[in-house]
């Protein structure tokens, strides 16, 4: 089997990158949703969709009161800030 045939193609859209970037900047889904002119539920769904596309990698460590960038997401954050 060739190396390429084992690779899985992941299609990440710019909306995923934009949402990730704004949530990472705001560290708050409510404020991020306001900036993106959407609601928290839709934004949360977009972030979960992105995490699913990345094989379940958690991008944010979530608690009841706060969120922070997960360690695995630090490389993504650096790339997203150039978009």
Describe, in plain words, how this protein is organized in 3D.
The protein is built from 5 helices and 2 strands. By secondary structure, it is mainly alpha-helical. It has one domain: Orthogonal Bundle (Arc Repressor Mutant, subunit A). The chain has a two-stranded antiparallel ribbon with strand order 1-2. The longest helix has 14 residues, at 40-53. The radius of gyration is 14 Å and the shape is globular.
What topology does this entry show?
Elements lengths: L2 H4 L7 H13 L2 H8 L3 H14 L6 E3 L4 E3 L4 H7 L3
Antiparallel strand pairs: 1-2
Helix pairs in contact: 2-3, 2-4, 3-4
Keywords:
Arc Repressor Mutant, subunit A, 7% strand, globular, two-stranded antiparallel ribbon, mainly alpha, 2 strands
